[in-house]
Amino acid sequence: MFAIVSLMALASRGVSQSDVGSSVFYPDNLPDNCEVINSQLEAGQYPLIHPTDTERIGLKLQWQLPGRSPNLSSALHSLRFLACLIGAGEQGDGKALKTAETVLLDWAKTNPLEGSPQDWTAANNLGPWEPETVAWRAVVLSYFYRVYRVELPDQSPDPAVLGQLVALAQTHGDLLTRTLIYYADNHRGLTNSLGLLALGSAFKDLPESSRWLEVGLGQAEQQMQENVSIDGIHLEQSGEIHHLALQQLMEIYRVAQRINLPLSEAYRQRLDRMLGASALMIGSNRRVEGLPDSDPQQEMTSTLLKTFNNLDLGFNSPGQGLLAKTRRREITRGLHLYRQGGYSFFVPGSSKELEAVFKTHILNSPNFHQDALMVTARTGDRELLIYPSKYFPGKIDPYFNTAMAANTVQVGDLQQIPLLPLPNSHSGSGLISSNLENLLNRWVWLNPFSKQQPKLPPEVIPLKDRVLPQNGQVIAFSSSPELDFVAAQQQTYPGIRHTRTVARIGADFLLVWDQLQSPEVQSYSQTFHFPPELRVKLMGSEGVLRSGQDPVARFIQLAPQVPGRVCRGRLQPRPCGWYTDSSTARKQPTSAVLYETQAQDQRFLWILSTGGQTIKARLDTVQEGVESYQLVTLSKGDRQMRLALKGATVQLEK
């Protein structure tokens, strides 16, 4: 059971408000390059969002940004860029702390809240008073207040400045405790919790501080219970969001321990499982790749989870142990299923073996992607099947939020529409079956303006209740030293059933078997995307991937009469062969192989082999009584294997 947190328990545990600590998030989570950041700010060359951005800021700021992106506005008004200056002040740099004070008070003077916190509406307070921005600014404000009161060298704090800081804290706390602005079904709600804990810890002499701590811890429990799967995947199903949320959930757990008001055992267990899932996401090369919104340019556990080893989760913390081993590159071959979280991880025994990720369901959630049953693969640092958009898709091109941009099957011009539970059911038994309602639901999450609006209580559907069988579910799996497979089925295309089986054979073969059933003839497209640096040559049903002149992998399509072609940077008649990554955040061409056909029911059978050796494959139909099954014979060098495809399962025949 998840506990309902109440600070009335403080007295019963012999804890007074004076015992409440004051350090929340900073300085433990300061960037490692703070000296560089402070130098860039002084020179007017700090990139607010992305290192490649042309938009740079200094310490003389224009706070009004008409026509600029919401992300830029949030990054500016959150004041997070001041954290390194405050950190320098904590180390005795009085000039840096004074600079941070000047910027913070200038912000407060220039950006007053319109009306009272009780009158707050999204319509008149987007920008400086957007909820997540308020929460992060509360964290920065609390950090500055603590350092200013304690660390100011050679002088006492100015009472007038302290008064302004306290007034700001009260306004921020009043806002963050309002249900209206709380993102209950979104990782942004965690920032709300973090902001309240920071305020309650730093401004502990204020009578409101107990309330801030109480609400913040309660929100954290709710976020963990409702938006993280029981097996430890954050249900926005994004590589980056999983780690951003995990960073905050870890910090909240640490704060709760420090103030002697521990969170529930269920919270602790799920936090540990999230760390274990992180170990599988980072894989053999310790970089999060092959998932939506992942960032291959940084080791997320080094930047976002750098304090995970200092987290006291007790002796029963296998997830934390697995992450520590993976960080040391101690990996063990195996298949790890996260049924509720929607991912299956094919873990290699070494960096030379094939590694794969299979996304077995999607759900209607913030930042959701139309990538049901997508698959990615790599060996060590060599990516083979990529997730084409490693930056948030809609921010670059709507194309990146279509099934055509994922390694899955696109059906005509249909969109993958994940279903929602019926209002008030919260059980997953009822469904919104109207396509119009589903399209409207999808619009709510994909429309940039709507994402800035707070959800109105009380009818917020927890993400865990949006995990429905129709949106994808595992129907079979098996694991052995020679063969791992997972079969999943989804019905996000209205009226169409899509079953995909992904199998890893030995250390170097990946089999992707799609079966589609429809009441009428459809246009089907099976697509696989490769890294931009690799070149693809297709010869009939067979293909080869090359790095320069060297072959790095080969593939073959065994479905009969299914022509394939390579597309790279195609715009018409339908975009195909595009990629973005976090190093540029820009769209660029990449090679993709596309198999298209028209049928009522259709099967695709695609096999990838790592290395440059030539492969041979044959598909036969075997009659077994009144039933029949498919038999695949694979040859590579002096090896030969036979695979029986029965129903949705794969069996290795001796």
Write structural notes for this entry.
With 654 residues, the protein is an alpha+beta fold. The chain folds into 3 domains: 166 residues, no CATH class; 104 residues; 238 residues, Beta-galactosidase, Chain A, domain 5 (Distorted Sandwich), CATH 2.70.98. 29% of the residues lie in helices and 23% in strands. It contains 16 helices and 25 strands. It has an 8-stranded antiparallel β-sheet, with no helix packed on it. Strands 3-4-5-6-7 form a 5-stranded antiparallel β-sheet, with no helix packed on it. The protein has a 4-stranded antiparallel β-sheet with strand order 8-13-20-17, with no helix packed on it.
Give keywords.
654 residues; alpha+beta; Beta-galactosidase, Chain A, domain 5; 3 domains; eight-stranded antiparallel sheet; five-stranded antiparallel sheet; 29% helix
